[in-house]
Amino acid sequence: MMKNRTYHIETFGCQMNIYDSAIVESLLQRTGFITAVSREQAGLFLINTCSVRKHAEQRVFALLSQYKKLKDDNPEMRIGLIGCIAQIQGAELLKMFPHLDFIAGPDDYRRIPEIVCNFESPKTALISCLSSEDYDDVKPYQSGPCAGVAVMRGCDNFCSYCVVPYARGRERSRPLVSLIDEFHRLSDSGVKEITLLGQNVNSYRDNDNDFAALLYAAAKVDGIERIRFMTSHPKDLKENIILAMAANRKIAPHLHLPLQSGSDKILHKMNRGYTAEKYLNLITMARKIIPDISITTDIIVGFPGESDADFQQTMDIVNSVRFDDTFTYRYSVRPGTKAAAFIDDVPEQLKIERLEEIISAVRRIGRENLEKLIGKTFTVLIENESRKDSDWWMGRTEHNRIAVIPKNSCFIGDFTNFTAGEISGFTIRAEIKEDLHAPAALHEA
Ligand code: SF4
C-alpha cells in the first residue's frame, strides 16, 4: 500500500497533453492524492510524453535516464510514463528503463490510481485498444482564468507523417450537452477564457451539431468572455465556422490553420486532403469575413521528395499570406507512419538550411505585422505576472498576441483595454489607456 500519496507530473507536447495531465491530476485527487512539494519528494512521479517529433521523443528518453537518480534517492517513489510514447512503444520501455514502474496510454488514465495504490507487480504496462475513452465525466484540475476543454479525442486523418491516429485512436466527439455543462462549471469557478481543444476541431459532430453549433452554444455561456479553438484543418474548415466567429464577439478572431507545405505534390504525399489553392481560398474567405483576423500556421520542411521548387512554393505562400506566427519543423521519420516507408531523401544539411530560411522569413514578417499594431487598442486578459518584470502583467490579446501591461489597478483574471506602445521581441508592450475592471468589449463583428 502506498504511504506517500503525493504526485508530480511533467508534461511534454501539445495543449491536448496539458489537458490530459489535468485529467490525470483530477483522477488522482479523487483518490486522495495531493500535489507534491517538489519532484524529489513526490510519492508518484509521472511523465506525460509526446512522440509527434523525434526531437521531443529524444528529450524524454534523455530525461528518463537522468530521473533514475530520483528513484535511487527515493526507492519508494513510483515512476510512470504516460501519453503517446507509452502507447506506441509499450512494454519495451519498461525494459529499456529499469527504474520505470509502469506505463499507461492515453485511454488508460482511469486505472492509474488503482495501479499505483495497490502496487503488487513491480512492472505494469497499461495499453488498451484505443478509441473507447473520452473522460467525459472527469473534471480536469484547473486554476487561473484560462482553461482548455477537449471537445473531441483522436484523429481519423492519417496524415502520412503523423503518429497521432496510432497514439490516440479514432476520432470521437464529446456530447454537446456535456461540454456546455463543463463550460458552466468553469465559468462558476472563475474561468473567463476557454480554448476548445481537439486534433481537428472543425470535424466536431454530435448528431446535428457541428463545430459552428458548438461555437454558438459556447458563446451563450454567461461568464465565459473569450473562446478560442485549436487545431483547425484546412480540409474541414467551412465558411459557417468563420461566420460563427464573426457573429459572436466572444469568439477570438484568431485562426490557427496548419499549411504544412505550399506544394501540391508534397501535400498529396502528406495525405493532407487539400491543395495550396484551396488553402489560399480559405485565407481569402476568412479575411473577407473578419478583416483583422490573425492567422497562424505550422510548416514542415524537408519532407521526403521536397525539391527546391516545392520548398519555394511554401516560401511563396509564407510571403503572400504573411502569417502572424508560424511554427516550423524539420521533417523527422516517425516509425509506424506511412511516410516512414518513403525514402527520407532530403539531406539533413539541406533541411537545416531550409528551416533557417523559413524561420528568418516568418520572424521578419511576424515582427513587421506586430509593428503595424503600434498605436492601436486591444483587450488583454491578464494571466500572470510578466516573467521579465514583476511590475508588469502578462496576458493575451483577442488575436492571441502576447502583451505586457503595467500593474496599475488591475489583477489576474481582469480584461483591460490598452494601446500598443512598442514591440519587444514578439511581445507588445502597452501603456494602459483605459482601466476597466468589468469585462471589456472584445472584438466587434
Ligand atoms: S490532422 Fe493529421 S497532423 Fe493533425 S493529428 Fe490528425 S493525422 Fe496528425
The gist of it:
The protein is an alpha/beta fold and 445 residues long. The chain contains 14 helices and 21 strands.
Question: What report would you give on this structure?
Answer:
The chain is an alpha/beta fold and 445 residues long. It folds into three domains: 6-126, Rossmann fold, CATH 3.40.50; 146-371, tm_1862 like domain (pyruvate-formate lyase- activating enzyme, Alpha-Beta Horseshoe); 377-431, Nucleic acid-binding proteins (OB fold (Dihydrolipoamide Acetyltransferase, E2P)). It is 33% helix and 23% strand. The protein contains 14 helices and 21 strands. It has a six-stranded parallel beta sheet, with helices on both faces. It has a five-stranded mixed beta barrel with strand order 17-18-19-21-20. β20 and β21 form a beta hairpin. α9 (211-219) packs parallel to α10 (239-247), α10 runs parallel beside α12 and α13 packs parallel to α14 (348-371). The longest helix is centred in the C-terminal third of the chain and has 24 residues, at 348-371. It is globular, with a radius of gyration of 22 Å. The N and C termini lie far apart (58 Å). 43% of the residues are buried. The structure holds iron/sulfur cluster. Iron/sulfur cluster binds at residues 155, 157-159, 162, 164-165, 199-200, 233.
